[in-house]
Design a protein that fits this description.
It contains 22 helices and no strands. Helix content is about 80%, strand content about 0%. By secondary structure, it is mostly helical. The longest helix is centred in the middle third of the chain and has 49 residues. It has one domain: Sodium/glucose cotransporter, CATH 1.20.1730. The radius of gyration is 22 Å and the shape is globular.
Length: about 475
């Protein structure tokens, strides 16, 4: 029953993607859905994009091992990222009517800054998308009872996501996200209801979590524990803001207010629903302490799927894996589309194929989506890090390289091309140096990179201007 449901669900997803392709007439339709999305769809696509493999499998696994303090990056940092992006970045960026976040760096600073930022942001997506592909392989392996190996599942899952993303672009992502958000919410709530009945109710689970110290959020100790805690929080909270997928969701809205409200609502929904997988995973340790205690030590990412397969009825399994597939596929499609669009718009169009027509650009974007999908699949097949770590690591490069030029460019009139370049060099350089020399120090390399990136922006912008780009201005003006 389970494998048949999965097959039907995947066929439905591809069908929706094919339907969405009928609404794609030009590159703007493909990238930002013609800037026509209403509030419910914007909210859904913000929520569904972020509620991915790391939320269901990664966060829940980390929580049962480390408690709330271990998930400071996600969902706490991740949800705050969406809220901050909606309140402080969406209004200004929406008014600029851009196609990609890379366009902002070109308009505000220069083409060299655009090129560097585009490469940094594209690289950051490898880890995030790879995590989704790894999770797809795991799901296919589980629902097939081992008949489909994890590598084969990765190939199959990537092919399916590519099929509808290549044709429908942002339209297919948005429409599927709306469907998938519904499946995620209903599925997770049903599973939580069924599981809570086996463990004596929600209150009992919360008390047990508190008694075992899982609800302690803030670290106990001095700088050696607080600095890594803050670093993990900031990595997701700020490093996720200068990302094309966040930008696309804000700028795909039908108007500025919808962009703001959709991002904030999506962030709030994400925060609260991210606790459902944590609740389920901890409940597993109460249902079968020995079984799941051993699993936590060997492969904690399997705690939640094992709970569902071995301790819930068939209907619960259908809803859970439907929700899990929805979560993974929505994130995978969005994170495949974003870097592919940036590469086409900000590298090929402006540096290699300057005379590209809109039709050629649309075709090229689809080819790049396919190419990037192949790269991600290769990365996933050779990945060794956990799903959660792959996602956390993805945002370090954008935190140290892309966030400061974006934020200062929007809110500080004196920010200029020279400041942006110095900020990028100091941020990326110090981060890479720390990763090589002292990766295990209690000062996270990405936090050092962020601080030096800020210093570089201030120093570079205030010194005599030798590296002129575009005239310094603020989008607020």
């Amino acid at each position: 029953m389970l494998i048949w449901f999965v097959g039907l669900y995947l066929l439905l997803s591809v069908g929706i993607g094919v339907y969405a392709s009928t609404r794609v007439h030009n590159s703007r339709d493909f990238v930002v859905a013609g800037r026509n999305l209403p509030l419910p769809v914007v909210t859904a696509t913000v929520f569904a994009t972020w509620f991915g493999a790391e939320t269901v499998l990664g966060i829940s696994a980390t929580f049962v091992k480390e408690g709330l303090g271990g998930v400071v990056a996600d969902p706490f940092g991740a949800s705050l990222c969406l809220i901050i992006a909606g309140l402080f970045f969406a209004p200004l960026l929406y008014r600029m009517n851009l196609l990609t976040i890379g366009d902002y760096y070109r308009q505000r600073y220069s083409r060299p800054v655009e090129l560097i930022m585009t490469i940094c942001i594209m690289v950051s997506y490898l880890g995030w998308v790879s995590a989704q592909v790894v999770a797809l392989g795991l799901v296919f392996n589980l629902v097939s009872g081992g008949a489909v190996s994890e590598p084969t599942g990765m190939v199959l899952g990537t092919a399916i996501v590519l099929a509808y993303t290549m044709f429908g672009g942002m339209w297919s992502v948005a429409l599927l996200d709306f469907v998938q958000m519904t499946v995620i919410m209903s599925g997770m709530l049903l599973i939580a209801y069924l599981v809570s009945g086996q463990v004596g109710g929600v209150a009992h689970v919360v008390r047990a979590a508190a008694d075992t110290g899982k609800l302690k959020f803030f670290p106990q100790g001095g700088w050696e524990v607080w600095v890594p805690f803050i670093g993990a929080w900031l990595t997701m909270m700020l490093g996720s803001i200068p990302q094309q997928d966040v930008f696309q969701r804000m700028t795909s809205a039908k108007d500025e207010k919808t962009a703001v409200r959709g991002s904030v609502l999506g962030g709030v929904l994400y925060f609260f629903f991210a606790f459902v997988p944590m609740f389920l995973a901890f409940s597993a340790t109460l249902i079968a302490p020995k079984e799941f205690g051993d699993l936590i030590q060997t492969n904690s990412q399997l705690v939640l799927p094992t709970l569902i397969l071995q301790h819930t009825p068939a209907i619960a399994q259908v809803f859970f894996f439907g929700a899990l597939l929805s979560a993974i596929m929505s994130t995978a499609s969005a994170t495949l589309l974003a870097p592919s669009v940036m590469f086409t718009e900000n590298i090929l169009k402006h540096f290699a194929m300057k005379q590209m027509s809109d039709r050629q650009m649309l075709r090229t974007m689809r080819i790049i989506v396919l190419t990037f999908g192949g790269m991600v699949l290769w990365s996933a097949l050779h990945a060794e890090a956990s799903i959660m770590k792959m996602v956390e690591n993805a945002y370090k490069i954008t935190l140290v390289g892309a966030f400061v030029p974006l934020a200062f460019g929007l809110y500080w009139r004196r920010a200029n091309n020279q400041g942006a370049l110095v900020s990028i060099v100091l941020g990326l350089g110090s981060w890479l140096l720390m990763e090589i020399i002292k990766p295990d120090t209690y000062w996270p390399p990405q936090l050092v990179g962020l601080l030096l990136s800020i210093a570089g922006m201030l120093i570079g912008s205030l010194l005599p201007n030798y590296l002129r780009g575009r005239p310094a201005h603020s989008p607020q003006s």
